[in-house]
Amino acid sequence: MSKRKRKGRIDIIPYRSDLVEKARQLRNSATPGEKRLWKYISRKQICGYDFDRQTPMDNFIVDFCCKELKLVIELDGRYHDFKVEYDERRQKRIESYGVQVIRFEEKQVLEDIDSVLREIRYWVLQRAMKLGLVE
Length: 135
Known about the structure:
The protein is 41% helix and 19% strand. It has helices at 19-27, 32-41, 84-95, 106-111, 113-130, and strands at 52-57, 60-66, 71-76, 100-105. The radius of gyration is 15 Å and the shape is globular.
């Protein structure tokens, strides 16, 4: 595997301070899909990169975020069909900060975690190359 370059502190995306407590509450009431995915991406298990759960970003809280790669992972649950337009606006706003957002259905995480992890690894490596973090 390629050697990672250390780039120092990355830019922090601003967020509303009132979202910190809500993010903490969301971490304590994770969905089954979030719990399952966290088991596989926590503790730098994906190519050595650190992911956080329920991270405040702008006016939103994202499910998972790797700040070093500016990579967000979102899980769409059963209510997603009712909020597609909201999610599209939200995603565009987050992407305006140079963040890559990838989405998975919660059902896919629960039923086919291997394909989800393959896709996450792909995007992690793509972002690392794009940002010049690997040689």
